[in-house]
Structures are given as C-alpha cells and as structure tokens.
Amino acid sequence: RRSFAYFVTQLMSNDLLGVFGDPSLAQEVDSLLGTVVQGMLDSSDPATQRNCASGLASMLTSWHTPQLLMQIAPSVLQAALEVNTRDAQSLSVLHDLGNLQLVMYRAFGQAFVDHMSTLMPSLNILSDYIQQYFSLLQQGDPKNVGMFFKMLRDARGS
C-alpha cells in the first residue's frame, strides 16, 4: 500500500492527474480513490496516511466535484478523529489532514461547511467544537486545523 500511495503522489506532483479525466476510466478512478482513502485511514502506517492525505488534496485541487466531496469528507473526518495523538510520528498526519480539510474548504466553500455541519453532529461533536473548527478553517493554518482534532480527542478522553 505504501508503494501505491507513493506512486499516486508522484502522479499528482507531476501534474499527471489529467490522464484520469477520460470518462472511460471512471471505474479505475473510483478504484484509485478508494485505495487512497483506505491508505489515509490506515493508522498503523503514518507515512502512508500522509502520502494519501497529500494525494487526496491534489485530487481535490484538480477534480473538485461535489461528488468527490461527499465521497471523501466522512473518511477525512474519521481519519482525523482516529489519529493516535500520543505518537509523535502520527501527529504529523494531523497536519496533512488539516491541510486536506483546508483544500476541501477552499474548493467547495459553503457546500463543505454545510456538509460538515451535518456530518459532525452525527459523530457526537458538540456545536461549540464545530464552531471552533469553522473558525480555524477561516484562519487557514493546516497545523491548527489538525491540532483541533488532537484537542477534540483529548476532550473526549479518546
């Protein structure tokens, strides 16, 4: 999985995502996206998580479609909530996930806010925390957005 995540990241960093824009490749693109999302969720491998979060940020920058937002937002939120905040290496994952959330916020604006406003309460995140999250997104610092999830986990005792 790590090699695949690295390969995908290299495709994106070399502006080769356009290759996947061909409608006849839709099934392959869905498979690619699913694999990258699974890598982002794999908390046992922080290096892969970071590569996958960066890859998804590149995908969103290139393909910012509402379907993509709806498809990955729950997984991004889940990954951020499940990062092992007691592991120094995993804390760097929060920065990449914070950046990914900022990319989603910038690409989708109000649609992202509306979606997260529905999604976050379904995960028992209190409204005060949700407002703090949106405030941090507006400030635009990926480290602060990522560390919000550490604070949230600490507050929940997770």
Largest sheet: none
Give the topology string: H per helix, E per strand: HHHHHHHH
Helix count? 8
Mean of all residue-level pLDDT scores: 85
Note the beta-strand portion.
under 5%
CA distance, first residue to last residue: 27 Å
Shape: globular
Low-pLDDT sequence parts: none
How many strand segments?
Answer: 0
Helix content range: over 70%
* Structural class label: mainly alpha
Radius of gyration: 15 Å
Q: Could you please describe the fold and organization of this structure?
A:
This protein is mainly α and 158 residues long. Helix content is 78%, strand content 0%. The chain has eight helices and no strands. Helix 1 crosses helix 2 (26-41) and helix 4 (66-82) packs antiparallel against helix 5. The relative contact order is 0.12. The mean pLDDT is 85.
Detail the topology: elements first, then pairings.
Layout (H helix, E strand, L loop, with lengths): L1 H12 L12 H16 L4 H17 L3 H17 L5 H21 L1 H13 L4 H13 L2 H15 L2
Helix pairs in contact: 1-2, 1-3, 2-3, 3-5, 4-5, 4-6, 5-6, 5-8, 7-8
